[in-house]
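User: I'm curious whether this sequence folds into something compact or stays loose and floppy. Could you predict its structure so I can see for myself?
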Amino acid sequence: MGKDGGSIPDEEWERFLREAEAGTRSAPKEPSARARMVARRLREEPRPPAGWRTHQPARRRRSKGWYAVGLLVAAGLLVVAVAPERVAGWVAGGGESAPLAAESHRPSEPPATETAQLPTVEQPFRGSPAVRWADGAAGIHLPAAQATGWMNKEQVEQALDRSRDFLAESSLDAGVLSGERPQKAIALINPHQQDVKDYLAAAFRAPSREDDPLLLFSRFEDSKVRLVGDVVKTRGRITFREGKRGAVEVTADVTYVYPVVRTAEGSDEVARTIARREVVMSWDDPEKVIVEPGTFSLVSYKVDTTNGGCDTYTGYFNPEFRAERATSGQGDGREVDPYDRSDSMDERMRGADDAECGIATRS
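Assistant: Here's the prediction. I'll summarize afterward.
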């Protein structure tokens, strides 16, 4: 049980199920407090939790992360308490792709890695933790609203909803993903931020390391690749606090998993591009800041991408397939698990070198 008395984190629960299925000889004779708590939960659970599948390590091509601060882009040990065959039956059951509970807090560890299974057009998320993630905006957890700063509870609730709308319009909209300009997302950004206006104008006119639209938006060049189906898997959460001048500062930390194939007719090899973004939005008091109604000011934005292209600034993700990976060689940077959300974006990007292409431990 967490410090706040909540439920066991999803990752610990999954680890428990795997260990319970395998059994253990070293389990203590006297159940620990956690073991007794798990046993009680199993007795009270109306339905068994589902198992899951993960993917074997794969090479990672890593695009760079930039920081924007002040709007400047820089860029079964517990099996003693339960019957092992009962837990094993649950894991072996048919609910392997049942969605995980929403991520209401940062996990304590990355998802486990098991047997490699290649994705297919019919099952584009097979072999990755994303197979159990929620679809689209449903995977972005919203906290309960409460009066904060200059806003009452209802206004905070509306700000949270609109913040998630921005994420959907910028990273999940079908038109934007196929390369269209993200007009609806841009319309939610305070137009009185001149530096942001300059960044957006340059990003779509002449993309570069400093002015890269992928910092905020997910786009693929539809003449080269297309999404498989209409589902993007997501996992992440939105938090809020009081910011400067009584503003409501909303932070979104979300990982998006995009399965794609080549646009060429008959192509069926599936690759996945994984982007983790952190966007900080300030819903400002109009009596203290010049802002248009229903818009927020950008405070910062960061992105860390796997298989989206490395040192390629075209304004589009540029995923590699097996043929390209065979000739491009290994990356020269550190290894990173793109599904690991146990560290913060600051920790993830600390020490990242703009000159290196890292290696993904899975895809």
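Summary: The mean pLDDT is 78. The first helix runs from residue 10 to 22.
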